[in-house]
Amino acid sequence: MDRLCHGVRKAWSILRSPALADRFEETQFWTDKMVANDRILRSGVRNIMNPGWHAAGSSRMGPASDPMAVVDQEGRVHGTENLRVVDASVFPSMPSVPTNLTTIMLAERIAGSAK
Prior knowledge:
This protein has 115 residues and is mainly α. The chain is built from 4 helices and no strands. This is Glucose-methanol-choline oxidoreductase C-terminal domain-containing protein.
């Protein structure tokens, strides 16, 4: 539980950092107060986080000219230096095979082309 709470707080600090905070209108569920409160955070981690849900398609891949695209074909986040997204969020739709295997393949391909 301590590791999961630490991970949520670390991810939250990255999302709320000056480099990223202005890019989000809102976040789903979490707030600064919730993340700061140990009791509420533990309850959220225990009751809301679920390893069985595999999100896909939330960070559209496409050219910078597409206002809905978040990353380019190499996973580079538009308008941000040295940040890539290489996970199932860049998939255009839910794959018909396990998302973890497809994500591994995507990561291997992008890592190979980034050299």
